[in-house]
Amino acid sequence: MAEYTKGDRLSICHTQKCDCLVVDYYCFILSVIETCHLRKIDPWNYIAQVLTQGRQGIKYSPIPLVC
Question: What's the pTM value of the predicted model, to 2 decimals?
């Protein structure tokens, strides 16, 4: 159960499905950024590439491994 502030009210994740979805997406983005940092890849370029490929209907490429 995650608690965080949203405006003037305190939300508890398990009672607010919409808020949970936002938290899930936020955690996903943070995970991608951290993985990119660990693999010495620029996270913003990777995210931009994935979004561009998605708009073109191309399957995204996985985060490259460090050789």
Answer: 0.61
